[in-house]
Design brief:
The complex is a heterodimer.
Chain A lengths: L19 E3 L26 E7 L10 E6 L10 E6 L6 E6 L5 E6 L5 E5 L8 E6 L2 H5 L1 E2 L3 E5 L2 E5 L2 E2 L8 E6 L4 E6 L13 E4 L4 E4 L5 H4 L3 H4 L3 H4 L5 E6 L4 E7 L4 E6 L8 E5 L4 E7 L5 E8 L9 E6 L5 E6 L4 E6 L7 E7 L7 E3 L5 E5 L16 E7 L4 E8 L7 E8 L3 E3 L3 H4 L4
Chain B lengths: L1 E8 L2 E8 L29 E2 L4 E3 L5 E3 L8 E7 L9 H16 L8 E7 L7 H8 L8 E5 L4 H11 L4 E4 L5 E6 L3 E5 L4 E7 L5 H13 L10
Parallel strand pairs in B: 6-7, 7-8
Antiparallel strand pairs in B: 1-2, 3-12, 4-5, 6-11, 9-10, 11-12
Classes of the chains: A mainly beta, B alpha+beta.
């Protein structure tokens, strides 16, 4: 993905077990732009499915968190329809997901119950199946609130948000094998300027750099937002840092000051680029992370999002495939904004549209023409009354206008609150069925 | 190129025909390493998982347990198939193996403690004889390099599964096999107790890093926790 991009493909003939004609590997030119650079089996064209990790709502349907599959191929007769749903036990604050490096499994976390649900999406991508639940992350690691799931070769990095001792923001990362066994833990740094907080993970293998960001602890993210913002002491307990890690050694190299809860991190995918961008939620700013002339990693404020005084609360961001544009969702005003990143030192907003009464996650296809938006932020932070819309909306983007394409009303369908989305495809199906998933059962 | 293909799905074998894509010679052969790796011994390589075991065939056609080739020495293992022609795929891995093989041979401290293993994906075509021919390209420098295959898909599948080495088949809009099978290129570094300690993909397949990792394992002053099989 960074610098010289390679899509390694083997061409050849194999009979017997398989005829292998493509050994894919790499930071490749395809798929959702926020995926790990280690992920293979990428979607190279039209995605077929949108997997949505939804928070259960008491009294609505079965009330449980669930993985919802929506058909998003316009050529399908089921376009824009829910075609599958898999419930897990209870309401655990379903939040984020991530594919394993081989894209056979989708890991999904609960911020409240700290359970990790692993779905097989390789055997039949249209019908994910729950194959394993990891319920002992807090007991084994001391970390709670599994947030980001970031694939490494044969492993999954799970970034926690909090801890078992005080429910504050000091936390760490847990490294699991793809089979779901705990391999190692890495505390977030609390020295040399580190606040110990965590949120997102993003890796640049060619630079041997992993970046992490910071949010807040369980006591804050499970509290009603209206109460929280009135509590000055609690509002001090948000992360103000990003950390540059030596990826190989998995050791922190430098703590960067990024005030106001820097959240999602996106590396530019353009060949030769060595920078990443993030948005700070509470200060409503864009930050650029890149090496300076001497090679020292620095974080630099490069722009504002909306009117920071009004706290629009930027949440998810999505960078386009060549690093020239960035979508930013702001939760409070329900706006989806597009920033021109032609000069990442000076992002310029060129478009905005209200896409919902509250909006959080945003994903785009590799070619950027399809954009998906989901509504929910956190169970106790979502708006109330008529403003509590819960949806997934698909849009077409022609570079000038976001045009609605479909909508799934998650309340009407009794699905709960729509949170994280990942793209799926039926074009790539694992060559081994049940036996290949046996290790995870 | 029209290829006759067969894939094992749940133990069954289904025939299909695919058009293999031609190698893209315009692409770079490898990712550029744009960093200085941390020194050997300055970091930990955690126990990721035990290597699987099962019967394999060596280049002489002898049936051996894979553990004969994964335990007792630090082992760099990669899956290959001899007909793979794209220079950015298996040949790239083979090139990296050659480099590591040479560098290990030049290191008197490592020479007798490290082996390389190339295990074929293709038991039907990559017979022991074919593997023996393929192995002829590897110089005899005192460092063990085993070229292995398996008797049949059923004996290979558990090894692929145990290493977490995926193989995928692409399908058309109707769910029918329509494209090439694909896998994420992975190379595995095992310690002397046959525990996987690092996994490399093309995004991170650098001889300098591999050599440092091998040295890091050699520098360990106590055995790592062995994962129960």
């Amino acid at each position: 993905m960074h610098g010289n991009r390679v899509f390694a493909a083997c061409t050849g003939v194999i009979a017997g077990l398989v005829t292998l004609a493509g050994a894919a590997a790499l930071p490749a030119a395809a798929d959702e732009t926020c995926n790990s650079p280690y992920m293979g089996n990428l979607i190279k064209g039209q995605e077929d499915y949108l997997y949505v990790w939804a928070l259960g709502v008491k009294g609505m349907g079965d009330g449980s968190d669930k993985l919802v599959t929506i058909d998003v191929n316009p050529a399908s007769s089921r376009y824009g329809k829910v075609i599958n749903k898999v419930s897990v036990r209870g309401q655990g604050e379903a939040h984020h997901m991530g594919f394993t490096d081989d894209r056979r499994f989708l890991w999904a976390g609960g911020l409240d119950n700290s359970r990790i649900s692993i779905f097989d999406v390789g055997t039949d991508p249209s019908r994910p199946k729950l194959v394993r639940t990891i319920a002992d992350m807090p007991a084994k690691t001391g970390y709670v609130g599994p947030h980001t799931f970031y694939a490494m070769p044969g492993r999954m990095v799970v970034q926690g948000l909090s801890n078992t001792k005080d429910g504050g923001g000091v936390t760490g990362m847990a490294l699991y094998s793809n089979k779901g066994e705990l391999v190692a833990t890495y505390p977030m740094p609390t020295t040399d300027g580190g606040d110990g907080y965590g949120y997102d993970v993003a890796i640049n293998p060619q630079k041997n750099v992993m970046l992490t960001s910071s949010f807040t602890g369980r006591k804050n993210y499970t509290r009603a937002l209206g109460d929280l913002v009135k509590d000055a002491e609690a509002m001090k307990k948000f992360g103000n840092t990003m950390v540059v890690w030596d990826l190989k050694a998995m050791k922190p190299k430098k703590v960067l000051s990024v005030p106001g809860a820097p959240l999602e991190i996106r590396w530019s995918l353009k060949d030769g680029d060595s920078w990443a961008i993030t948005a700070s939620a509470l200060t409503s700013k864009l930050w650029l992370v890149k090496p300076d002339a001497s090679g020292e990693w620095q974080a630099k404020e490069v722009g504002v999002i909306g009117d920071p005084a009004k706290i629009p609360l930027p949440v998810d961001i999505s960078i386009n495939k060549d690093g020239t544009g960035l979508w930013v969702n702001t939760f409070m005003d329900g706006k989806t904004r597009y920033f021109d990143l032609s000069n990442p030192e000076q992002p310029k907003q060129t478009y905005e549209r209200v896409t919902g009464k509250q909006v959080n996650m945003i994903s785009q296809s590799w070619d950027g023409t399809r954009v998906y938006i989901a509504s929910s932020l956190l169970a106790n932070w979502d708006k109330g009354g008529a403003d509590d819309e819960q949806f997934v909306r698909g849009f077409a983007w022609d570079g000038k206008e976001l045009k609605p394409a479909f909508e799934v009303d998650f309340y009407k369908e009794k699905l709960g609150r729509a949170h994280h989305m990942k793209l799926g495809s039926k074009a790539m199906k694992t060559a081994y069925g049940g036996e290949r998933t046996a290790a995870l059962r | 190129m029209l290829l006759a293909a067969a894939t094992a799905a749940g133990g069954g074998v289904a025939a299909l025909a695919v058009d293999a894509h031609e190698p893209d010679d315009t692409a770079p052969a490898a990712v550029t390493m744009d960093f200085v790796p941390p020194p050997a011994g300055s970091y930990a390589l955690h126990a990721i998982m035990p290597a699987p075991d099962g019967p394999v065939l060596d280049a002489e056609g002898r049936r051996r347990p894979l553990s004969r080739f994964t335990a007792g020495k630090i082992t760099l293992l990669g899956f290959i198939y001899t007909s793979c022609a794209d220079r950015r795929g298996c040949p790239l891995a083979y090139q990296i193996f050659h480099t590591v093989h040479h560098r290990v041979a030049e290191d008197a401290e490592l020479r007798s403690h490290v082996r390389l293993v190339s295990l074929s994906f293709d038991p039907a075509r990559d017979t022991p004889e074919v593997m023996r021919h393929y192995a002829a390209g590897a110089p005899s420098n005192g460092v063990e390099w085993a070229f292995l295959t398996t008797e049949r898909p059923r004996t290979l599948a558990p090894l692929l599964d145990g290493f977490g080495q995926d193989v995928r088949i692409e399908t058309d809009a109707h769910g029918r096999p329509a494209g090439p099978l694909a896998h994420v290129l992975k190379v595995f570094l095992l310690d002397e107790s046959a525990t996987v300690r690092e996994i490399y993909t093309t995004a991170y397949l650098f001889p300098e890093v591999i050599m440092n990792d091998i040295k890091t394992l050699r520098l360990e002053d106590r055995p790592q926790r062995k994962i129960a099989r």
